[in-house]
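## retry 2 of 3
previous attempt timed out at serialization; input unchanged, resubmitting
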Amino acid sequence: MRKMTIFVVGICSVFLTVFFSFTTSILSQNRPTVIMLLVPELTRQDIRALYQNAAFSFLNQAAIGEMNMRTAVSLRDIHSVLTLGTGTRAAGSEWGRNAYGLSEKRTTGLAMYRQYMGEVPAMVRNGTILFPYASVLAENNKQKNTGAIPGLLGETLKKHGIRRAVIGNSDMSGKVSRLSVLLTMDRRGVTPQGWIGEETLIHSPFFPGGKKTDYSFLAYHVRQWQKRGTGFIAVELGDLVRLARYQSVISTQRYLQLRQQVMEEIAKFTETLTKERTQGQKIVLLSASLPDSEIAEKKRMAPVLLWEDGRGGGILTSGTTRQPGLAANIDMAPTILTWFGIQPPIEMKGMPLRTEREIGHDEFWKKAERIDHIYATRPAVLYPYVGMTITVLVLSSVLLFSFDRWKSTKEKALRILSYLLPFVLLVPFLLLLLPVVPGLPPPFLVVLLVSGVGLGFAHLLQRLSFAACYFWIGIINWVPLLLDGFTGGGLIRGSYLGYDPVIGARYYGIGNEYMGVLLGASILSIAMAGEMQRRHARRLVLTLLILITGLVVFYMAWPEGGSKAGGILVFLAALVYGIPAFSGFAWRKRYVAALLGIGMAAACLLFVLNYQAAGAEQSHIGRAVGELARGNWQEIGRIIERKLTMNWRLILASIWSKLFIASFIVSLLLIYYQSERVGRIKREYPWFTIGIKTISFGSFVALLVNDSGIIAAALAMLYALVPILYRLLWNGEASKEYTKHAPI
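## retry succeeded, writing output
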């Protein structure tokens, strides 16, 4: 009987072992697996060179994109990798490189962890990876108020039972660097399994430093982890970093040869993983940082490639950027969680990546080159424009105060200014149309093209009457701008005055530059319409003000449109000011309070409607409203702090602040020293005068409520100041039309 019992127990044990092994194998095959290949100092040019090699055709099966690398501090790898792992812009530390495996020789990782963290982590085994400085990173981000939680990605995966592993390093002789651990560790700095020490390297006598990545070792362990059901595997490939350390002591030819060799080895390793890819598995290849040479050349977007099930190819985008081919580093952590069916925590501010199959790789390369070109050449185009504008404003002021003995010189200068003043206001429109020009014209050609076309337009417009000239200047600026915004904003995205995805401040909608143009140009055209139609001016102006402002506010609030919370407030403020000003009503407190109440109610309604949009359709306005609805006052405080910091930084250093200051000083000179002549303009052009006041009020509100309000205010003020200077400098006979219907 006893033998029979032992036999039955043995048979059952074998059966259960086989059953559970088979079940585990099936589940591991069906369970999603994510392998992230982290390559520090990988550039888009490296990937492009591999594309041109027929031996690596597997790259055509990847969805490709480029990633904004903005962090809470700088573009350095220590900040970039932590941002990838937290889903929000984070601040790293040099301590973030120092992780250790229990299986490493000559390390005291466990002792350091016990000393710095005050405990021994549970379930420590031979393959456990420890990061003893987790509290340093947490405290650093707390002090900088970034909202980032180091280890959040690993902690979330851990709570949902997803196994994690890490392998590889970027170590150099005498310097440890294991940043990939920041992606897999939990909040206590623990990764359950991994290999990050010297065992991941091989001796290579012909490679600078003598050591490089052992790809066969990495491939073997990745396969083993997959068989055991490990869900998230981070692989750090650090040979480009090791090579870069010796760039200054080897020839350029040798460096390029070795870089190509490293890239081919990375490509072969990646191809091996893609060929062994199982159903549901995703492989991501991305850069952890950029070389100093790329940053110096203003190429600051990093490549990202994704292999997944389904048809190959396509390009990547996300709800953060809403631009095909563009992603943000904060998108990576929420994307990984979404692949596992996990809802990203609210502390993650990125949006999951998605693939657009309809757009090919060739279009991506062209778009990426254009983004780099615009970012690199923007100062060479905008600095001359701002400098010329300031010069025109100063010269106009000097001529207003010049003596009669300079009469001949003054007449010549006036002839020049009669073209330059309208031209200044036409430049934003011409820069909006510039993306239509084929190719990537160099800055000097852009300046010549804009100058030639702009001065030609100015020559035609200055032949019209004063009111008609600036009415059409206003129309030419704001109508195409709004039409482009409602049809996807393709021109805004490619303009030198558009937003810049490289710095990552804004990826879609309308930026502060063109918001200022839209404010100034629309109010100017409304006011000049009143001057051109004196008989029915009041009714016409009020109707246009309400309709146009309502249309612009709708565009600003529409998630697929402008997505500009500050713009909503600015145009509502302009409407609240403009209605009583243009109607001639007295400024009664009750009336003003009612208008303010209606305006604020409208703004709140638009914000709530934006919040109701689902998923990727929800803009950053809606997400901010969501934080407010959840009572996340810390995040609201961070948003306000970022906006105030950005505005103050721009006020101190931006070229736009210099333009705004110049405009402000000229305005004060006109008010205090040319009051009689300004008063004459007020009598001759009452609607225009009210338009100037409305633009000025809107500019002041823009300065207060926008994170880069100085830019919007500077550009909007031009549409008030330039026409006044034009009129004051013009020596022709003043308009004799004076309307009885002018406002009181």
